[in-house]
Design brief:
The chain is of the alpha+beta class and 458 residues long. The structure holds guanosine-5'-triphosphate (GTP).
């Protein structure tokens, strides 16, 4: 094929719009892509003035550019937005290249135009998806998955969008957006009755616009049950493991099959959902760790009871707020002759006795009362919203519970610990040290009485 013929063929096949305009501003050449874009037949363009082909408003803009190239003899590149009468908007990358004669006079220009609408649309989509997930100043929020689904349902013109987990073969709809189907988050379905099983089988994005004609879908239980004709779904993968599927479906066939752009959009959405879920998992791990650390910081490691910090904080808050207008009782408890238990049987046995005694005390309290290990063999009990009469009965139960505790050693020896208790009721303007001091003074008296008894501060 001669070169001229070949280049002509290539020009006709190019998706890029190419035209040549002479100095009288007439079309001398326009390739197929150019004619198609302006919806004109080639015969209706060639030899016609540009001014007669384009509408007035558009030509007015183009003319300025043309004049510039003809005057300067230099290339002019720019981006242009064209809005058609039907509202369709196109983004064009335009390049005007002058044709110069031997005297460097511009005798025409080549218009080389790229339709970048799809590119701009995808940039726009990326921005929208990014904005939904990373709203400025907002933490990544699982609610943004609802927003993403809603956007997807509208954009794809489908009936339903879901983000579902598939954990141990159980399919659970975690997020759902639909105005047309009766489904809500938390719904569990057999996996083989959802198109997700197709996504899982293929392990990549799948889509169909005619499920009834698609081998992968037509015999599927989901098609037989719900008759969904259009579907697009992509796996959600977290840390290399498939977590679930993001899917969109429509009962009827869509006007057109899913476009490349729509497929890419669903892929991007899948990635966005992965980000949100992964972030959420990291955050709940951190929160769990924080809770665990708080628990450790406030727990006595030997007995599992609240420790001194937790107890004093609780008492302080209680006195400052809810115990203020109602009486509470604080009791300080100390094991009797504990040194001799340690000295006789060793520290480990002493620990065993402390644990058994702590359990006995804890078990004999009401739900509202709290026992705290203040340190060593000293404990405190806070009994809120109570008076001396009621608290006396409870503390007597505590004392007896310890007295009845039996720690039997491997040697056959038996230890029966006892405790002394000093107690006091709260007074107006009490703070932690004043109330604790009174209870401690009462304990001192109990130790100097018979031990294994309760003494109240007056
Ligand atoms: N096994 C064990 N012993 C502890 C712990 N904390 C404190 N002790 C011991 O508890 C004993 C307390 O002794 P003392 O304060 O003399 O009082 P006591 O022997 O109980 O005598 P009274 O309180 O007067 O009845 C000391 O020997 C401490 O070492 C602990 O966590 N484990």
């Amino acid at each position: 094929m001669p070169e001229r013929q070949l280049s002509n063929k290539i020009l006709e096949k190019l998706p890029t719009m190419v035209a040549f305009i002479d100095e009288k501003r007439r079309y001398r050449y326009a390739n197929k892509a150019y004619c198609q874009f302006f919806n004109l037949k080639k015969a209706d363009m060639l030899e016609r003035f540009v001014a007669d082909v384009l509408d007035d408003e558009f030509y007015a803009r183009v003319k300025v550019r043309h004049d510039k190239v003809f005057k300067s003899g230099k290339v002019n590149s720019f981006s242009e937005t064209v809005t058609f009468r039907d509202g369709r908007k196109c983004f064009l990358d335009v390049r005007y290249i002058p044709e110069l004669d031997e005297n460097n006079k511009t005798v025409g220009l080549y218009a080389i135009i790229e339709d970048v609408t799809e590119y701009y649309a995808s940039v726009d989509l990326m921005r929208t998806i990014h904005d939904i997930i990373h709203k400025r100043g907002r933490r990544i929020d699982p609610a943004s998955i609802d927003e993403l689904l809603k956007f997807g349902v509208d954009y794809l013109d489908v009936d339903i969008g879901t983000a579902s987990s598939i954990i141990d073969g159980v399919y659970t709809i975690e997020w759902v957006q639909t105005a047309k189907l009766d489904l809500e988050a938390g719904t569990q379905l057999p996996l083989d009755t959802t198109y997700c099983s197709v996504v899982l089988a293929e392990n990549e994005l799948v889509h169909t616009n005619e499920a009834d004609k698609d081998e992968r879908f037509k015999d599927h239980k989901s098609f037989q049950t719900y008759g969904l004709q259009s579907y697009i779904g992509t796996p959600i993968v977290i840390n290399d493991v498939v977590w679930g599927v993001l899917g969109f479906a429509k009962k009827t066939t869509r006007l057109e099959a899913f476009s490349e752009l729509e497929i890419e959009m669903v892929r991007m959405m899948g990635t966005a959902v992965e980000t949100v879920i992964a972030e959420q998992a990291v955050r709940s791990d951190l929160m769990r760790q924080r809770d665990d650390m708080a628990l450790i910081a406030y727990t006595d490691s030997l007995t599992g009871l609240k420790n001194r910090s937790a107890g004093m904080e609780m008492l302080e808050q209680g006195l400052a707020t809810h115990y203020k207008d109602s009486c509470c009782v604080v009791a300080v408890i100390d094991f009797d002759h504990f040194k001799s238990i340690n000295d006789t049987y060793g520290h480990d046995v002493g620990d065993q006795v402390l644990i058994a005694g702590a359990n006995a005390m804890n078990d004999s309290l009401r739900g509202s009362d709290t026992v705290i290990r203040v340190g060593g063999e000293e404990f405190m009990i806070i009994l809120p919203y109570t008076d001396k009469d009621n608290a006396s009965a409870v503390l007597e139960r505590v004392r007896e519970a310890v007295e009845k505790t039996v720690v039997t050693l491997d040697s056959g020896d038996v230890i029966n610990p006892t405790v002394s208790i000093g107690a006091t009721t709260s007074e107006t303007n009490d703070d932690v040290s004043s109330i604790y001091r009174r209870a401690d003074q009462a304990l001192y008296k109990a130790k100097h009485a018979s031990r294994n008894c309760i003494v109240w501060s007056k």
